[in-house]
Amino acid sequence: MKITRTVSVEVWRQTDAEAHGRFVTYDVQGVSPETTVLELLDLLNEQLPDGDSPVTFDDGCREGSCGKCGVTVDGVPHGPEYNRASCQQHVRAFRDGDRVRLEPLRASAFPVLSDLTVDKKKALRTVVKASRGPAGLKALTNAGCISCGACVAACPNGSAQLFVGSLLTELPPLMKDDDERRDRTAQVIETADETFGPCSTYGDCTEVCPAGLPLENLSAVAREHLRNQRQTK
Ligand code: SF4
Ligand code: FES
Fold first, then answer.
1. Residue 160: Cβ-neighbour burial (10 angstroms; 0-12, 13-18, 19+)
2. Name one GO molecular function term (predicted).
3. pLDDT of the residue at 86
């Protein structure tokens, strides 16, 4: 027999991008240790008091591969289980089994659109476009990055260095020659510097990355930067 209980869910409610948000607490019934964060939100929406609008969140594959989901669970982007997307996080791992706080991914580059939904695409795409779009997307795919944005939210500086470093790890072989490599990598680094915060190698990004991308990927940024400087002298 499946054992279920009631969990008190403190969730961020914000009607639109301009509105002030606040936490609202709801009791959600029928939750099991195996319930995932997105399933908990489904249950919450099914049990909302009359008149309350559904809590919005980014839904996708629910298999940890599309990068769409991503909420902050008790202060941790995606949730307390290392290297798992929110759709793969379970109630059994919550710090307090009877209570949880859900809020959007927090980063100045990711404005909240409503409730738990943020616009992370715009900022991440700006960097990918700087790498000549399709090549950048292919580089991210080759690196295993799912563009979830959790590394940015986990970083105390709001840096996207794990995302950028993963892109730059795989971009050079996709460039047609050294000139293109220099131009594109310089554009990527400059755009990332303008869009996100600086990297202080705290390493928090690697704990939340669902793709398990390593800290070594950060070094690709310095490598391409130094290489470009040497070539322009
Ligand atoms: S590097 Fe990891 S955490 Fe950052 S966007 Fe890619 S998959 Fe997400
Ligand atoms: S919904 Fe696709 S990674 Fe979570």
1. buried
2. electron transfer activity
3. 98
63's CB contacts (< 8 A; 6+ apart) are 87, 88
CATH number of 5-118: 3.10.20.30
Is the full-model pTM beyond 0.90? yes
Which among 68, 117, 147 is the best mutation to test ligand 2's pocket, defined by most ligand atoms within 8 Å of the CB? 68
Q: State whether CATH 1.10.1060 applies to domain 121-232.
A: yes
The per-residue pLDDT for range 48-67, each reduced to its tens digit, is 999 999 999 999 999 999 99
All structural domains of the chain with their residue ranges: 5-118, 121-232
Ligand 1 binding pocket, CB closer than 6 Å: 145-151, 162-163, 166, 208-211, 213
